[in-house]
Amino acid sequence: MVLGTSCATIVKNYPKGKPFVYETNINVNGNFSNEERETLESGLRGQLDDSMRSRSVSKLLWNVMKNPPVYDSSNAAKSIVFMRALLTSLGYFKDSIYFKSSVDTAKNDQLRTTVDFYVTPGKVVKIDSFSYNIKQADLQSIAIANQQDAFVKKGEPFAKAAISVELDRLVNLYRNNGYLRFSREELIGLWDTLDVSLLQPTLDPFEQLELLEKLRQRRENPTANLEIRLKPGFDSTRLTKYYIGNVTVYPDITLDTSAYSRKETVVNGIKVVSYLDMFKPKIFPQNIYLKQGQLYDQRNYFKTINRFNSLGSWRLVNIEQVPRGTLDTADFNIRMTPARKYSFTANLEGSRNNTAVSGNLFGIAINVGLQNRNFARAANQASTTLRFGVETGRNKLTDIKFIQTRQLSLNHTIYFPRPIIPFLKKIPENVRNSFRTILAFNASITERRELYNLNNVNASWGYEFQAGKKFFTLRIPNIEYSYFKALPTLQQIFNNNPSLRFIFTDGLISSLQGGMTATGGKNKNVNVFRTNIEASGLITGLIKNNAFLDTNLYRFIKVDAEFTRKIVLAKNAIALRIFAGVGYEFNSTANPNKRNNLPFFRQYFAGGPNSMRAWALRRLGPGSVVKDFDGITGFSDRYGDVQLEANIEYRFPLGKLFGIKINGAVFTDMGNIWYLKKGPASIGRLPEEVFNFSRLGTDLAIGSGVGIRVDFDFFVVRFDASHKVKDPSPSTDRAYLQNKWFGYVKNDFLRGTQFQLGISYPFIL
After folding, report:
1. Strand ranges across the sheet with 126-132
2. pTM, whole model, 2 decimals?
């Protein structure tokens, strides 16, 4: 397959017998780096007149150009004017731009015209001095106090964009300090490129030589002096410093409120005017950052708007600013139009499930959801989802040929947009705006015919909040209970493979969960660090001599951490990832059958499209064990209490196909999973399955491969092919390949290669 735009171009609907724009090239001359030249050429191309643009669409093996514009030299001249304006805005004041055109008549009646622009930017004018000269004491002092944040600095190009951004910064700075009505119209930037001292006459020949040398240097390295002032004739009323007056909220504005009675309530100094009584008045003061008597700060104005928009209970939020005549006080009216209270969703989903005990199953499920955007009249979000699904196919163990599994689940979650924490009344200002309290409940019933029945219920109370670039989650408590009933067919499988009894398990988890995600990085490089911890039974386990807890409670602690870094190299990128996780089931767990490992729904696994891609999902490990994956004594799914993994991926563009970006990747994955405890001999766990630091080099699996990413902008479809470079846990019929470097290449290349289909990138970045 050939990708790119270097192939032939087919022109359709061209003006016959007339020259048309077939190709436009921009050539920048001067001492520029490749990146600077590409940036400048891209900007100049954006200044081309529409009639000078040749547009083509990339097909599989060729390009197609439709309706090309007729060539007119006057349009090229217009483009030069636009280009010169761009160069001036970037600080290039003396430039040379011209164009040449040529017509290719080789294609019958097609007069293909190629236009070449030659651009030689002059010396960039740099800022020699920058100052504020604002003839108003308070404004001048505010500007000087914050000059370290200025976008205009000495030695940088005299660029229009930077000066414009600096003026906007000053306006926002003044509005953040009480000047509510201040605008760009009150400021002006004055500049000159001449040093007056160079014009002063002198009779001393040595001084004359020195002045001539300075003039020569100034021509070679032109500079400008910039000064920010108040514009002459400015409106003095816009220099009034305002304080917050009355704040009034209209939470249920509709097109016609005449049919409803007006109800006014004052809560903590905030007046709430309601017509439909849709919201409790007490919820508003905590979401309003405009406090009566305080100096006006534009940041609090926008924080209030953003806060109400983020709640999701209103579709339109507007704050009206009403200055009180000649006074230094302004009142604020918050007018909000409610969103539709309820929304209903329904969708159909399909899935495929391949397990050792059930074979290849096709699943179909119906999801029905109801969202309440104003639960309990307090702008809380409540979501209820009901799901019913079945899996069909032929079960190779039970010989059932149609419906294998039925599952019914109900999920109900309430999001409170505020902290609800007993005994803690004050939350730091920088955290409160993002704080959410979450109450969640989930129940499910799964019936796998002639194998087992599984009932599960889960309830949790938790919090989410953000502080700077860190996002925190906390669930306290998180309570889960699973009841598992094995049917006769599965009991027979257990008898042939006793270790499976520890895969199909039930019990109680009473845990605390915490998580933190931190983002950082410089320039285009991005770092993400995530860590999670869960501890179960630490408090509940203190209850002694309780038959239910002694039988069902899991007591464990689980900690994992992940670091991901993306390094951008021009058009390419390198993604790095390191993951480590460990879980320990305490020996104090009362039930001896639950002491040997984490519950399987908390264990780690490797393989699949997002982890160790040379192995199928859950087909790696544990450790360097050699066991069958299939058959009555084998099992395809592998789990562990410890996981280590490292990944590196090099990404690069391949081109476009039908206008869709196609990217490539080369990657290597390294890692494995292990059990943490050997356990009693009755469970049949081998030493090779248990983590031992001295065996780490032996146990690590390594896979390398290549991939193609189809980038649709809003999501990425990923195709990866990865090969087992070193396989510590092959099946028994491939035991001779265990830990042999590139063993599958010589003996069974296809068996050692895994194809993966994924959505989005394999890591966070």
Report:
1. 126-132, 223-230, 187-192
2. 0.77
CA angle (583, 586, 587) in 5-degree steps: 140
Angle (CA) 367-368-373 rounded to 5° is 130
Q: How far apart are CA 621 and CA 611, in angstroms?
A: 13
Alpha-carbon distance of 507 to 536, in angstroms, equals 12
Burial call 485-494: b when 16+ CB within 10 Å, e when fewer: ebeebbeebe
Question: Residue 651's domain is classified under what CATH number?
Answer: 2.40.160.50
Pairwise CA distance, residues 306 & 322, whole Å: 20
Residues 616 and 734 in one domain: yes
Q: Identify the DSSP state of 604.
A: B
DSSP 415-472: EESS---TT-----HHHHTT-EEEEEEEEEEEEETTTEEEEEEEEEEEEEEEETTEEE
Backbone CA torsion sign across 684, 685, 688, 692 = negative
Of the residues 64, 92, 120, which one is the last residue of a structural domain? 120
Burial zone of 756 (CB within 10 Å; 0-12 exposed, 13-18 middle, 19+ buried): buried
CB 499 within 8 A of CB 684: yes
Q: Domain check: are 258 and 204 in the same one?
A: no
Q: Do the Cβ atoms of 612 and 705 come closer than 8 Å?
A: no
3-class secondary-structure state, position 539:
coil
Q: Is 726 exposed, middle or buried (0-12, 13-18, 19+ CB in 10 A)?
A: buried
Q: At which residue do the structure tokens 């508003």 appear?
A: 284
Between the alpha carbon of residue 604 and those of residues 9, 500, 501, 619, 644, the distances in Å are 53, 16, 18, 12, 10
Q: How far is 230 from 189, CA to CA, in rounded Å?
A: 9
**Do 566 and 555 form a contact (C-beta atoms < 8 A)?**
no
CA dist 762 and 609 (Å) reads 7
Residue range 257-315, pLDDT digits in tens: 777 889 999 999 999 999 999 999 999 998 999 999 999 999 999 999 999 999 999 99
Token reading at 251: 């939470």
Mean pLDDT is lowest, of 189-193, 221-225, 450-454, for 189-193
434 is a domain residue: no
Report the C-alpha gap between 744 and 737 in whole angstroms.
7
pLDDT tens, residue by residue, 361-407: 446 788 999 999 999 999 999 999 999 988 765 555 555 556 678 88
In whole angstroms, how far apart are CA 531 and each of 16, 62, 561, 637, 745?
66, 49, 4, 25, 38
Task: Please tell me the total count of domains within the chain.
Answer: 4
